[in-house]
Amino acid sequence: MTTSGGGDNGRFRAMAAVQAIFERYRILESMRPDGHVDYDAHVMQNVRLLDAGPEGRVLYEFEIGPRYSNLNGAWHKDKNPSAGRTS
C-alpha cells in the first residue's frame, strides 16, 4: 500500500517509528517490579501493527475477547444468558 506524503519509504519509516514505541514499552515493562501488571500490558503484548503512514495514520489488529466484556454485555454475550444477573 502506498500512502500520501512519502510513498513506500514514508510508510516504512512510519512503521519503524511505531514499532520503536512498542520496543520502548517492552524495555519499560522489563523494569517493572515483580508481580506488577499494568492495565495496558495485555493490549501492548497482543496488538498487531498492520500499517502506518507518514501522515500519522496507524492501523492495528486486536481481538476484543471476553476479558474486555462488561456487566451489561454490550461487547460480548455470555453463553449462559442468566450469568451475572441478580434477579
Overview of this structure, please?
The protein has 87 residues and is α+β, with helices and mostly antiparallel strands. The protein has one domain (7-68). Helices cover 34% and strands 10% of the residues. The chain is built from 2 helices and 2 strands; from the N terminus they run ααββ. It has a two-stranded antiparallel ribbon. A hairpin with a 5-residue loop joins strand 1 and strand 2. The longest helix has 24 residues, at 7-30. The chain is flat, with a radius of gyration of 18 Å. Residues 82-87 have low confidence and may be disordered.
Distance N to C terminus: 53 Å
The low-confidence runs, each spanning 5 or more residues with pLDDT under 50, are 82-87
Structural class by sheet pairing and helices = alpha+beta
Please, what is the average pLDDT?
81
| Major beta sheet summary | 2 strands, antiparallel
Count of helical segments? 2
Describe the secondary structure blueprint for this structure:
Layout: H1 7-30, H2 41-46, E1 48-52, E2 58-61
Antiparallel strand pairs: 1-2
Describe what is shown at a glance.
The chain has two helices and two strands.
Question: Which features would summarize this protein structure in a list?
Answer:
single chain, flat, two-stranded antiparallel ribbon, 2 strands
